[in-house]
From TrEMBL, chain A:
The keyword Zinc does not apply. Residues 666-887 form the ER membrane protein complex subunit 1 C-terminal domain. It comes from Paramecium pentaurelia. The lineage of its organism: Eukaryota, Sar, Alveolata, Ciliophora, Intramacronucleata. This is ER membrane protein complex subunit 1. The chain crosses the membrane at residues 856-876.
Automatic annotation (TrEMBL), chain B:
It comes from Paramecium pentaurelia. InterPro entries: TMEM85/Emc4. Belongs to the EMC4 family. The keyword Cytoplasm does not apply. Keywords: Endoplasmic reticulum, Membrane, Transmembrane, Transmembrane helix. It comes from the Eukaryota. It is found in: Endoplasmic reticulum membrane. This is ER membrane protein complex subunit 4.
Length: 891, 153
């Protein structure tokens, strides 16, 4: 009895443990980034920052993590102003508690200042609003190029025809003075004054007058060391700290960076990074003496920006040109982060290679060959499944015995085998390539793409066969990544090859070209069973480039299309030349174009079943969707790129074009999201294309695909183009910033809609809910040959929001895009969402397809089985030896 | 000492006063008895049908362990009924009556049982008699031409 109680208690404990382990977000991680810093302010353990994208936030000084990102505009350290785009109302807050005023504005806030009497001054567009006395609003006639302070007096600088004018904002807005200028000037803070410079003029802007500056000196200025009222000028051969009169205070070398001391203005700190060493020189401006120290730092990059954090502890925050940011003090590095991730060009993945790969599973091979639901191979599949399960079990047992006590190793290997743990590569606009482990967040590789200036932009990233690249001694069959960068300025196309195995990026080609319009990976057939991949690039003058070089590319029909300033043009690639095939003049403004074809997508299923009938999706990758705007009307066109024919068009009115609009084309479905002004809600507009054919008889199916002598129909869009276009509109109660689609390896399991909400959450929406096939009423009978579904819930305008499907849980992120990578498990995919924050998670809309539930616990199962066996054995012995039983036998 | 030797021979002579072969027994009464017995065996299968139908109706159309066990049992019963037809009539073989009609009735009873069970299987969705069951015969979409939109990135 006692044993049974212990067994039951053990099982319950194990189950509780399993449930405890099934915490939300166990596979998630996130990084919040502050990017390229422009301005910082340190208070105790926090660093208030503003970056070059004018984002504000707080960095935790001890860890370097972004603790909080402000969605509001800071006016000073205490006062801030919020803006709700939907309501167009600003709210002014004093120290975060008190709402001082509310005002309706149109457009976003450009500047917020605090006046001499503590009033708020809000500047948006050409309008200035002040809370002084009874509040006033004034609209100025010219563009405001700067708003700031001169000796604590709030000022705005206006660009007029041939002059800039300084206006002070006190009880009212009054013009102080104007100075001659061109129209492309910049303004810098300089002590308590401002400095204006353009290509011809330079002034120090004071309260009531401007002082003309030596233009030649200003032209050379590399850095304004404002509080010390000096500049760092960068001449060809030398770098110097000079004052307004051009007097030299200190001479530096080209690779040195100056930090001013904001507190005493007595010292300059001069930093120099060389050969993994950071040299800090302290220059006393009074005594002209220097003191230097050296800290070891593993980087070869140049310093981009540096800030003094703590003078006593000699703490500095340094940002390198690759946006690696480190906090150092005299004891060494406190923390280091890679901030270039704030601007990601592209993301790609690489699966880990497991040493012990499992045997080929004949069951899955059969499924692949004959289809998952083919009843003719049912028995064969069942037998092979059982045999394979036995073999798998054998392997698992052997492996388990080999790795007893190494649970982590087993889990890791399992996750690598199924592709749940991969390497993710980020290619950033800062030219860095960063590789992280998707599970452990550890930085595995960091590479820098050199030999290019800032004007080079990534045009394309493709994978091709490594045996075509002769630059590396690669004998393996691993695909090689090729990166194409284009510079508009230099009109050059640079090609880089990335060898991930050896961690090398190498430039392999550079050629002059015009702006690249199309890039496509192309498979060249080289005889039976042989092929290799090349990349074709076409510029705007229709010049065709290939990498690696290849002449004949006419084995397969290639159709291309583009938007040429509102004119849609279709081309065919023929004999290494582009031939025009159609032109469509769009009357309205083109907003978005999306193709139904996505690179790397497997051949999708055409047939789907509903209840007991088979219906056919009309998939044609030569279709593309175009979204245009006409007043408040949102128009959708579906065009066939082969023929140039508009095969479908429809319109929705009352769309708000100030809110985000999205268009997704996936297989036969088009999804459009927009804000409907009359409904005051974001809407999801779905259009689905089906073939007119519906199959209800299995005999007909067998006849069509087994016994027919005519060729099997593979392309339903080709066979008697008889299409049904269905459309439906749904109201989505949350805001939609970005819409995308989940992806799986074979597209067999459900693909959900993934939505980044306007509040920065990530929501997964069941695709069936936005289907056009939902019937109008629950009791509506469904005809045999109807496309309406008996299995989907009846139509309801407003979509229900299941908050359990919020993939980001309670957290909100500043995210814009996402990248999805399939795993070896059909049910699961890796999802990485990025923007100013990075959020990673695993998604499995159809989890039970090939995975056990999260609360399934092997340990509990094994323990239960063992305990039951032991309990049975022990109890049977106890029963046999009991007195009553003995007495029974005796009688 | 004495011993008894039992010869296991098949063609032993009949005991005194006993005649095994019915051919020799020409009585109409006996023939009627045999036909009655044969009809009893042949119709035996029909008696079960209502019980099978009721039980299957009670199990409902949900797939669970009980449904599987019950349907499996009835399916096996129906198949074994048909398979054991000769065995069921073995005692009436070579008794001078034609068993063809009785076997036909017996077979139809067995087939009816099988039909009821198969109908149940169909209702549960385990028989591939819908077009949706053969959906994998439809090939995947295959695009012949390459279509390239403006700028991938």
């Amino acid at each position: 009895m006692l044993l049974l109680i212990v067994s039951v208690a053990g099982i319950i404990f194990n189950n509780v443990l399993a449930l405890h382990q099934q915490q939300a977000g166990v596979h998630d991680w996130n990084k919040r980034l502050f990017g390229e810093l422009k301005y910082i302010q340190v208070q105790d353990q926090t660093i208030f920052y503003q970056n070059t994208d004018n984002q504000n936030g707080i960095i935790e000084k001890s860890t370097g993590q972004v603790k909080q990102r402000n969605t509001y505009t800071m006016c000073d350290s205490y006062n801030y102003v919020t803006y709700e785009p939907n309501q167009q109302i600003i709210q002014l807050f004093n120290e975060g508690y008190q709402v001082l005023a509310e005002k309706e504005i149109i457009g976003k806030i450009d500047h917020c200042l605090i006046g001499l009497n503590g009033e708020f001054i809000i500047i948006y567009g050409q309008t200035i609003f002040s809370t002084f006395n009874n509040k006033f609003t004034e609209k100025v006639d010219h563009q405001i190029i700067y708003a700031g302070y001169i000796f604590d007096v709030p000022v705005v600088v206006l660009q007029k025809q041939n002059e800039v004018c300084i206006y002070s904002i006190k009880e009212s807005i009054s013009q102080n003075y104007c100075v001659e200028s061109l129209s492309n000037g910049n303004i810098h803070e300089f002590g308590n004054t401002l400095i204006y410079q353009d290509n011809k003029f330079a002034y120090q802007l004071k309260e009531n007058s401007a002082k003309s500056l030596d233009f030649e000196i200003i032209k050379k200025v590399d850095q304004f060391v404002g509080f010390s009222q000096t500049f760092v000028i960068n001449d060809k051969s030398k770098k110097q700290i000079v004052n307004l009169d051009g007097q030299v205070e200190y001479e530096l070398s080209q690779d040195e960076f100056v930090i001013q001391n904001l507190e005493s203005q007595k010292y300059y700190y001069i930093l120099k990074q060389k050969n993994n060493e950071l040299k800090i020189v302290t220059f006393d401006r009074d005594t002209k003496q220097t003191h230097s120290e050296i800290i070891e730092l593993q980087t070869n990059s140049l310093i981009l920006n540096a800030f003094l954090i703590d003078q006593n502890k000699r703490q500095f925050l340094i940002q390198y040109q690759d946006l690696q940011t480190v906090l150092i003090d005299n004891k060494g590095i406190k923390w280091s982060t890679e901030q270039s991730l704030i601007s990601i060009d592209t993301v790609f993945y690489e699966k880990y290679e497991n040493q012990e790969q499992t045997h080929k599973n004949s069951y899955y091979e059969s499924l692949e060959k004959h289809g998952t639901n083919n009843p003719l191979f049912l028995v064969q599949n069942v037998i092979s499944r059982v045999l394979n399960e036995i073999r798998d079990l054998q392997e698992v047992v052997t492996h388990f015995i080999d790795n007893v006590g190494k649970e982590k190793v087993q889990t890791r290997e399992m996750e690598q085998t199924y592709g749940l743990k991969q390497k993710v590569y980020f290619l950033t606009t800062y030219g860095t390539l960063l590789c992280y482990d998707t599970q452990e967040q550890s930085l595995l590789i960091k590479l820098q793409i050199n030999n290019q200036d800032k004007s080079f932009k990534l045009v394309a990233h493709h994978q091709i066969d490594s045996n075509l690249i002769t630059h590396f001694d690669n004998n393996d069959a691993q695909p090689t990544h090729v990166l194409f960068y284009y510079s508009k300025e230099k009109q050059r196309l640079n090609t880089f090859v990335l060898d991930l195995q050896h961690g090398i990026i190498q430039q392999v080609a550079s050629q002059s070209s015009k702006n690249i319009i199309w890039t496509l990976p192309y498979r060249v057939e080289g005889g039976p069973g042989q092929h290799h991949n090349i990349v074709i690039l076409i510029d705007e003058e229709n010049n065709i480039f290939t990498y690696p070089k290849h002449d004949a590319i006419n084995t397969k029909e290639i159709i291309l299309y583009r938007n040429d300033n509102g004119v849609l043009k279709g081309y065919k690639l023929f004999n290494n030349q582009l031939v025009d095939i159609w032109t469509i003049n769009m009357k309205d403004e083109i907003l978005i174009i999306r193709s139904s074809y996505h690179v790397g997508e497997e051949n999708p299923r055409v047939a789907i079943w509903d209840d007991r009938k088979v219906i056919y999706k009309l998939i044609d990758h030569s279709n593309f969707a175009v979204l245009t705007s006409d007043g408040d009307k949102l128009k959708l066109f579906i065009i066939n790129a082969k023929t140039g024919k508009i095969i479908y068009q429809s319109v929705q009115s009352e769309a708000d074009f100030n809110q985000p609009i999205n268009l997704v084309f996936d297989e036969h479905q088009v999804f459009v999201t927009y804000y409907n002004k009359s409904q005051m809600m974001f809407e999801i507009w779905t259009i689905e294309i089906y073939h007119a054919k519906i199959e209800v008889s299995f005999i007909k199916m067998l006849e069509n695909y087994y016994f027919t002598k005519t060729p099997i129909i593979t392309n339903y869009y080709k066979s008697d183009f008889e299409a049904f276009f269905l459309q439906q509109v749904y109201g989505y109660p949350l805001g939609i910033k970005y819409l995308g689609m989940s992806r799986t390896q074979k597209s067999l399991t459900k693909k959900n809609l993934l939505i980044i909400t306007t509040t920065g959450q990530l929501h997964s929406l069941d695709r069936n809910l936005v289907s056009t096939r939902r019937r109008e009423k629950a009791d509506q009978p469904i005809l045999e040959y109807s496309l309406q579904s008996a299995e989907l819930p009846p139509y309801q305008y407003q979509l229900p929001i299941n908050f359990l499907n919020t993939l980001s849980y309670h957290q909100t992120f500043d995210i814009e895009k996402f990248s999805i990578e399939s795993t070896n498990l059909e049910s699961s995919a890796l999802l990485l969402v990025y923007g100013s924050d990075i959020f990673f998670t695993r998604i499995a809309p159809d989890k039970t397809y090939d995975m056990l539930l999260d609360n399934f616990n092997y340990n509990a199962l094994i323990a239960t089985t063992v305990l039951i066996v032991i309990a049975t054995k022990v109890l049977s012995r106890l029963v046999k030896s009991s007195k009553q039983v003995k007495q029974f036998y005796l009688n | 000492m004495w011993e008894i030797k039992i010869k296991r021979e098949k063609n032993l002579p009949d005991p005194v006063g006993y005649k095994k072969a019915y051919d020799d027994c020409q009585g109409q009464e006996l023939r009627d008895d045999l036909e009655k017995k044969a009809m009893g065996i042949a119709k035996g299968g029909f008696g079960n049908i209502f019980m099978i139908m009721f039980t299957l109706y009670m199990t409902g159309n949900m797939m669970n362990i009980f449904t599987i066990v019950i349907i499996g049992q009835f399916l096996w019963q129906a198949i074994s009924t048909i398979a054991k037809m000769d065995q069921a009539f073995s005692s009436l073989e070579n008794r001078g009556i034609s068993l063809f009609l009785y076997k036909l009735i017996y077979l139809s009873a067995g087939l009816l049982q099988l039909g009821v069970v198969l109908y149940k299987l169909y209702n549960i969705g385990l028989l591939p008699l819908n077009s949706a069951d053969w959906i994998d015969l439809v090939p995947l979409h295959h695009q012949e031409e390459i279509v390239v939109p403006y700028s991938y990135n």
